[in-house]
Amino acid sequence: MLTHEETAELTGLLDESPRREEAAAEALRIVQRRRGWISDEALHDVAGFIGVAEASLEAVATFYNRLYRKPVGRHVIFLCDSVSCWIMGFGQVRERLLAKLGLASMPGTTADNMFTLLPATCLGACDRAPVMMVDDELYVDLTPEKVEEIVEKIRMKDESSY
Ligand code: FES
Fold first, then answer.
1. Regions of the chain short of the pLDDT cut 50
2. Domain 75-160 CATH class label
3. In this structure, which topology does domain 4-63 adopt according to CATH?
4. How far apart are CA 101 and CA 95, in angstroms?
5. Quick one: which atom of ligand 1 is closest to the CA of 83?
6. What does pTM read for this prediction?
């Protein structure tokens, strides 16, 4: 069931975007911002509220790789595995990230639920490969050492904010 806050935000969105299909991705983002991911139930409720077929909304959720249909950690790391990044050291960076996060493989979420590591197609910074994105921030020219530092910094920042 959608919360009062969610329905209020969705109503505002529909007022601004009369074409339901155009509002679909943003409607899912509204729910994801509040819940962290989009469950089957949430997708069903949003589809009903904005008046689009559930299958269409599912297609939208599948198309955008930053709409999560499974639970993710507090921070989501997208590691680019496209060709330039592959050539420039993706393998070593991935291995170090997996070790640092205590994961056996990618995709995966850390035991403390702080990080989810996901593969991504080209993040648009091929000339600075290898590249990853953590939440909304892009990190370029990665090395195994650099990714360890990035993860460490985020952990420390999170811990100090509690
Ligand atoms: S191939 Fe990795 S950013 Fe383009």
1. none
2. alpha beta
3. Arc Repressor Mutant, subunit A (1.10.10)
4. 10
5. 1
6. 0.85
